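Continuing the series of single-chain predictions for the mutant panel. This is the parent chain; the variants come on the following pages.
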Amino acid sequence: MSGATGYLEIESPIGDLLAIGGPAGLQSLLLNGEGSFDSRKDGLDEDRDGLAVVAEQLGEYFAGERDEFDLRLDPHGTEFQRAVWQALREIPYGQTRSYGQIAAAVARPRAARAVGGANNRNPIAVIVPCHRVIGAGGAMVGYAGGLDRKSWLLGHERALERSANSNS
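Parent structure:
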């Protein structure tokens, strides 16, 4: 991974996560089961200090105390992929969008399939919320971490959003 300098394994309700960062920010956050963590850590040092803020903010998210992340991100991808990943970050907490809606948001309304490909290659799970993208008819489709994790994440956000709205 170009420019990566450190990693940190983080426990979460959806399984272990592997954060990989470099000088410009978080480059990837992988879900356990997306290939071997050991091979992703090759040549890197554990970086508890540098990636502590990632672990802290994820802990707050999973505890229901954070609905957006304030982290420096440095995902590596094509210009189109980075545009899609930015559009994903603009999906409000607890809400979903279709691949077609994301395609329109990146000014490529006929590129829903390409959006799906970019979504699938999102290197920063949870924080860049690709789990918030669903099929055109509202179907729960595609998630590199598995549909059970996607369902859990959406359910977690929706339950907290409903709770927050009922307390307002």
